[in-house]
Structure formats: structure tokens, C-alpha cells
Amino acid sequence: MRVIGACLVVFLVTYSYAAPYETKPFPKHVEDFIGVIIAESGLELERLLRHYGENTDFGYAVTYFRTENFKEVWHETQTLPEFKAVIRFLDDAQIDVVYSLSRINELLDMNEPVRFRKRPPGNVKESSALNSFINESMGFFPKSKLAALFEQKMKEDSNFRNTIDKLKTKEWERLYDALWRSPEFKSLVYTVHENGLDVRLLIEQVIAVFGQN
Prior knowledge:
With 213 residues, this protein is mainly α. It has one domain (3-209). The chain has helices at 3-15, 26-53, 56-64, 68-79, 81-92, 97-110, 124-127, 129-138, 143-156, 158-166, 170-181, 183-194, 199-209. It is globular, with a radius of gyration of 17 Å.
């Protein structure tokens, strides 16, 4: 499903103070899905987070996103032509990613960077506590209710439907595939992977927010 590439950016839109709804209303739709998850599974997810919060490996992975190393990776990603093309497409699809990217940059610049420690070698996908947390958290998502909300919005809201339809086009497929074929992008994704986060797994979690996996 080619919508998955865009879903990661939608996730960032929601959690980085998206632009006012009257400009581009898609973030409000995302909030509706998040609201269902919180209402149905908020307590379970909070307990899960507390449990993983005591895990040293989980702490390492989370801390990595405050390092200068990650900041460099993030800024380099934004310079890639393939990434810029994806951002333009999503912005045209009424997902205000330009505003959200600027907010992420501001947050990274505001945080005091912590010392980068190279993660011990190993199979990150199997051993990373952050990846395990993502996997387990998806199990608490109320999939049937999220899927029902998705179908309702597709039927009743033309703006939501138009955005989703654009993410099913050949043009989106071409741009998304080009990004993931980029050697530079793959190298950056691998750097993040080495430090505890499987980006594809994160994308799977974002798809689950919409009840679509």
C-alpha cells in the first residue's frame, strides 16, 4: 500500500504542532484517529511506556534523537532531491508537511544536544527495545474502530478522500519508490536503524493509526 510513505509524515504533522486547520485540515483528521486510540487504549499504552522507560536500551534509542548525530542525519535528509519531491507532493495533497518540518527543526535546535554514543553492534530489529515498544504498542490499537473511522471519513469527507486518493496515484508511487532507491537516503535510514529505530517499522505503526494494516 503506497499510502504508507505519506503516513510517516502525517505522524510528524500530528506530533509537531501542525498548522491551523483552516489552512490545511488533514491534521485535524489525524487527531480524530489519535483520539480513538487514546480513548480506547490510552491506559494500556501509558503502562507500556512506563515499562519500557525502565529499559536501558530503550533509553539509549530515545536519547539518540537528541544527539548532534541525529540532527545532522535529519538535516541531510531534507537536502535530498528525492525527499524534497516527496514533501512537495504531500504539501500539494493538503498535508502541511512544510510547516511541520520547520517545527521539527526548531525543536531540534532548541534541545541541548547530548553526547553521541555509538550503539553496540547487533541485530537492531530484534534487540532494540524501541522497536519492541513500537511492535507491542500496535497490538493495543483498536483496529476495527480505526478502520471504521477511516471508511466513514472516506465516504463523508471529500477533503480527506481527495488526500487519500492522491496517495494512491502512480505519481506518488514513483516519488516514494525513488526516495527509497536513493543510496543517500538508504544510508541515512541505516544510520538511524543502527541506533535503535527501524524506520519501516515506524511507518507500519503509523499505518496502524489509520486501521489500515
